[in-house]
Amino acid sequence: MHIAVTGNIGAGKTTLTTMLSKHYGWDAQFEDVDHNPYLEDFYEDMSKWSFALQIYFLGSRFRQVKEIRESGKNIVQDRTIYEDAYIFAENLNDMGLLTERDFNNYSSVFHLMKSFVSAPDLLIYLKSDVPNLVKKIYKRGRDYEASISIEYLSKLNEKYEKWISNYKEGKLLIIEVDDLDFVERPEDFGYILEKIEAELHGLF
Ligand SMILES: Nc1ncnc2c1ncn2[C@@H]1O[C@H](COP(=O)(O)OP(=O)(O)O)[C@@H](O)[C@H]1O
Ligand SMILES: Nc1ncnc2c1ncn2[C@H]1C[C@H](O)[C@@H](COP(=O)(O)O)O1
Questions:
Q1: Mutate to test the pocket of ligand 2, among 39, 132, 138 (most ligand atoms within 8 A of CB)
Q2: Each residue of 147-204: pLDDT tens digit?
Q3: H helices present in 8-45, as ranges
Q4: Is 12 annotated for ligand binding?
Q5: Counted domains in the chain
Q6: Is residue 203 part of a domain?
Q7: What Å distances lie between residue 179 and 13, 28, 85, 126, 129, CA to CA?
Q8: Distance in angstroms (rounded) separating the CA atoms of residues 66 and 137
Q9: pTM of the prediction?
């Protein structure tokens, strides 16, 4: 079983991935954030570092895809390779922060990799509005994320909405998280588990 948790920055992916892996006793796969050699520089100068960061995330995410394929274990994954290409890289290109030449180069590598990628059995989209994302990013308190603008988050949210509304690769569960506190309220976590189990009925 392969479940992936998707959503904008601060939506709660890492938190929910951790909780689900503990609850089901499954392995968790997290994004390469703390040891990422480009992320801090990227937020200081997006135009300069966007290509290097995208290549780094693509490689790191593809390594995860390979591990998921080879391990045969049940896995909960924090963010997918699709988001790097369809959300972040596309948005940086739209914003003029990733040149056409670099975006085309990136996209051709991504499309090659995509042919080796299997979609998760279930994609869980944590849908959140921008003010809530801002609150959560502030609460998490990574210094280098202080420069993230409302405009950047809004554009990413638009990309998420477009991608999710066309997603047909596998089962999809959309959870509106703005009024949920699945950390402090067991009933909210229970609500998410019920939804997951209803979607995966027969696969458990
Ligand atoms: N539903 C929630 N209820 C309460 N706190 C949350 C919730 N989702 C996320 N948080 C908090 O918001 C911050 C960002 O969450 P995180 O899981 O790191 O988001 P993401 O991985 O999507 O960027 C963390 O401090 C986390 O504890
Ligand atoms: N592909 C990406 N391009 C730019 N930035 C990215 C990409 N993937 C992740 N990020 C950033 C966004 C956050 O600052 C950190 C961690 O993501 P999060 O949504 O908080 O788990 O990396």
A1: 39
A2: 999 999 999 999 999 999 999 999 999 999 999 999 999 999 999 999 999 998 866 6
A3: 13-24, 39-44
A4: yes
A5: 1
A6: no
A7: 15, 25, 29, 12, 11
A8: 30
A9: 0.95
List all residues 6 or more positions away from 57 whose beta carbon is below 8 Å from its beta carbon.
Answer: 31, 32, 36, 84, 88
Q: Which amino acid is at 20?
A: L
* Residue-range definition of the domain harbouring residue 99: 2-198
The CATH number of residue 50's host domain is 3.40.50.300
Q: How far is the CA of 204 from the centre of ligand 2 (A)?
A: 31
How far is the centre of ligand 2, averaged over its atoms, from the C-alpha of 32 (Å)? 9
Classify 125 as helix, strand or coil.
Answer: strand
Query: Which tens digit of pLDDT belongs to each residue from 89-142?
Result: 999 999 999 999 999 999 999 999 999 999 999 999 999 999 999 999 999 999
Instruction: Give the Å distance between the CA of 33 and the centre of ligand 2.
Output: 7
- What is the amino acid identity at position 201? H
Cβ distance 157 to 38 under 8 Å?
no
Please state, in angstroms and rounded to a whole number, the distance separating the CA atoms of residues 103 and 164: 22
Among protein residues, the one with the nearest Cα to ligand 2's atom 4 is: 88
User: The complex's ipTM?
Assistant: 0.93
Give residue 141's region: left, alpha or beta (phi > 0; psi -120 to 50): left
Residue 204 lies in a domain: no
Q: Whose CA is nearest to atom 24 of ligand 1?
A: 140
Would you say the CB of residue 11 lies under 6 angstroms from ligand 1?
Answer: yes
